[in-house]
Design a protein that fits this description.
Radius of gyration: 59 Å
Largest sheet: none
Shape: elongated
Order of helices and strands: HHHHHHHHH
Structural class: mainly alpha
Number of strands: 0
């Protein structure tokens, strides 16, 4: 219930508002959503400069360098902005010299007013050099802008060269593993006459183990039933030997 009441009150108050009416209040209200202004529409072009000329120059830069990525596009924008500022510095330099040349001659100056354009430019330049640092500041600022332009141009060319090399180099396909050759079937050769062919074992996996040499050297165990009659046989053999021995001595005698 409270939220419905607040919504109704806000709608009623909004209906009473007519917005800003004067140009000053409208200009002020137009910046209500502005946070920092770094990405505003005019970040390079001044109010007294022609915005269409800057965009035409930017279009020429884009058509010349043809950026292929957002990074390359930013470098082209930076080059165009640096070039536009360099043109501005040249205009400022010309305006400074013109203003200094159009300065009226001081009556207290004992030197006569020069009428030759070369002397007028030299006198204006000397006054700007001696009395002001404007020209030295313009020279340093223009050199800085020139370095920015050249650095962006060099980086842009390196990126474009790398992109072209990557596009020109084909991606090698993955290596194909060679298939193993099929096992060749064993074909028995011709059997010579008088030799029987070897009959393969029905179960080739189970082969008879070779005889153990240690087991061959050991005596064969005698069964238990046979061991009972061994003493009787020994006694019988001894009796036979005694009998033969007694008969042999009798024959000699």
């Amino acid at each position: 219930m409270t939220s419905e009441l607040k919504s109704a009150t806000a709608r009623a108050n909004g209906a009473k508002s007519r917005g800003p009416k004067s140009p000053e209040t409208r200009a002020k209200s137009s910046h209500n959503s502005l946070k920092h202004g770094f990405t505003a529409r005019k970040t390079v072009v001044l109010e007294c400069e022609n915005n269409d000329e800057f965009h035409n120059m930017l279009a020429d830069y884009v058509a010349t360098y043809q950026p292929g990525s957002p990074v390359e596009n930013n470098l082209v924008d930076e080059m165009a902005a640096a070039k536009w500022r360099m043109l501005r510095m040249r205009l400022i330099e010309v305006a400074l010299l013109d203003s200094e040349m159009s300065r009226p001659h001081l009556p207290t100056d004992p030197r006569p007013e020069p009428t030759d354009p070369g002397y007028q430019i030299a006198a204006a330049l000397r006054r700007l050099t001696d009395d002001s640092r404007a020209l030295s500041f313009i020279s340093r600022y223009e050199s800085r802008l020139h370095r920015i332009h050249e650095r962006s141009h060099r980086t842009l060319r390196e990126l474009q060269q790398t992109r072209k090399q990557q596009a020109a180099e084909p991606v090698p396909p993955p290596p194909v593993q060679p298939e193993p050759p099929p096992a060749a079937a064993h074909k028995p050769g011709p059997v010579p006459q008088g030799v029987k062919p070897a009959v393969p074992s029905p179960n080739p996996e189970r082969r008879p183990s070779p005889p153990d040499k240690k087991a061959q050297n050991e005596p064969t165990p005698v069964p238990a039933a046979t061991r009972k009659h061994v003493p009787r046989r020994i006694a019988a053999h001894r009796g036979i030997l005694r009998y033969i021995g007694s008969q042999g001595f009798r024959c000699l005698s």
